[in-house]
Design brief:
heterotetramer; B: alpha/beta; binds adenosine-5'-diphosphate
Chain lengths: 141, 115, 141, 115
């Protein structure tokens, strides 16, 4: 079973709620609890915010594409931008005991998802793939 | 559009009620509401109470706004009291491990009680 | 001002709520009243249902692509399928005084939108474009 | 998942409460709930009352389900009473110009009153 939903929105923060409107029910319907689904939404929202802030440097006229794939044993969320490529080496979530504004987004992504992979192998932009395993209830469930 | 903010004068100082989604699109509005309160600063003012019971969503930009407000409060000798965190706010506080940094009250009544 | 949002979902009726979750707030944020937005959602939902029923004959493994474009003076919703082409001549909304189940979807589309155009000029499938004008409040509004 | 249906025995016959979204995905469940009621048919039964106050969304497949239920009711000599239409239900009835075809009651109390 593979179910794929794709959403493309302009790179303006006023469209972030749409991403949440799509990702939340998909996460719940894939078997995650409401709390887990809220955290998945948070991490995806942070990834979109980072694309707007860093890949597009605030340019609201570009696009963000998000695909959500529901597989038997995991959910994966892929975020595609056509902006400045991420320097993955530079993305380091900050230490949490250093209380200051900022630096939390990448920490949330890592805390919520089992894997966070930035791929800059395309001609343009970055593909970020977030993957979270489902807790399988029984054999073949 | 996604966030509604109401500011009220209370015995302790000011109460800011935040309703809706606090994200990269709307956190500026929350920051501005706090800014207004800090401008009204008088010696009689003891605390800024923030009612978070009606927050449907909060991301790291909302957290950043609260951390900034906390820093301003500390400079001004004010208390920042966060009241009645909704489940989405609790989630993001938990992930950011911020529960110990803020003064958090279970209910708005508790937060508004003189201390 | 042109703002484009695109959503692609599998051709299974269990994804119709996602289409509604996206189209409703976009319609409201484009300036339509809640009542108008609800009717826009209804008409788009009917268009998706027809794609599932007729273009794909119930095959739930295909895809439906929806784009919503918010322009200064109108909103347009485009539905793309890769199924059996519509015979536009055969699509006739039924007479409403003939009370029976069925035949309402196309009537809703025509009643809600200012224009309903089926385009079968592609290699595969049909592009349905629904367009609704905004009530302009003042000059330049 | 999108629709919740509760069926209750009442003095007049049966009450079916529909909650959530009635669309192509869920209208079958509503049809099945009506089918259960028609199976319980007894001579003491006068009406099938449908509470539509909690319907968040209804499309033409929901309308089709209600039209079918009306036809079955007429054959069985039953009344079909629709109660307390939510705004989305009113919209779709308006667009389908069906308000005159059905017996519509403003409140559930009215619909449940013996007549
Ligand atoms: N998509 C991206 N493209 C380029 N740099 C990024 C991207 N996402 C994150 N970064 C870098 O990683 C840092 C940490 O990001 P994050 O944890 O989200 O916190 P913040 O955005 O508040 O700084 C950012 O300051 C930025 O330098
Ligand atoms: N996308 C489509 N592809 C092919 N035929 C269609 C399509 N949409 C509608 N039709 C035709 O138009 C008729 C009327 O459609 P509609 O008003 O939605 O009512 P219903 O689906 O209940 O019959 C359908 O019965 C079908 O024959």
């Amino acid at each position: 079973m593979t179910e794929l939903v794709a959403l493309t929105v302009p790179s303006h923060p006023k469209f972030l709620y749409l991403v949440r409107n799509v990702v939340y029910p998909l996460a719940v319907n894939s078997g995650f609890s409401k709390k887990e689904a809220r955290k998945i939404v948070l991490a995806v929202d942070e990834a979109c915010s980072n694309i707007i802030k860093y890949a597009y440097a605030g340019d609201a006229t570009k696009t963000i594409s998000i695909t959500v794939t529901n597989e038997t044993d995991h959910i994966s969320v892929r975020l595609i931008d056509l902006g400045r490529k991420v320097d993955a080496a530079k993305i380091a979530p900050r230490e949490l005991d250093d209380v200051r504004p900022g630096g939390l987004g990448t920490h949330f992504m890592g805390a919520v998802f089992d894997s966070v992979v930035y791929d800059t192998g395309q001609d343009q932009g970055t593909v970020l793939t977030l993957l979270k395993k489902k807790k399988i209830v029984g054999p073949g469930a | 559009m996604n966030v509604d903010i109401v500011t009220e004068k209370i015995a302790l100082g000011y109460l800011v009620k935040v309703k809706g989604d606090v994200d990269m699109n709307s956190s500026t509005e929350v920051r501005e509401a706090f800014g207004q309160v800090f401008k009204q600063r008088s010696s009689a003012m003891k605390a800024l109470v923030v009612d978070l019971s009606q927050v449907r969503y909060m991301d790291s930009s909302g957290i950043a706004t609260l951390v900034e407000a906390l820093q301003t409060c500390m400079k001004q000798g004010l208390q920042l009291r966060l009241a009645d965190l909704s489940p989405p706010v609790k989630d993001v506080f938990e992930l950011a491990r911020l529960a110990s940094v803020f003064e958090i009250y279970i209910s708005l009544n508790d937060a508004m009680a003189e201390r």
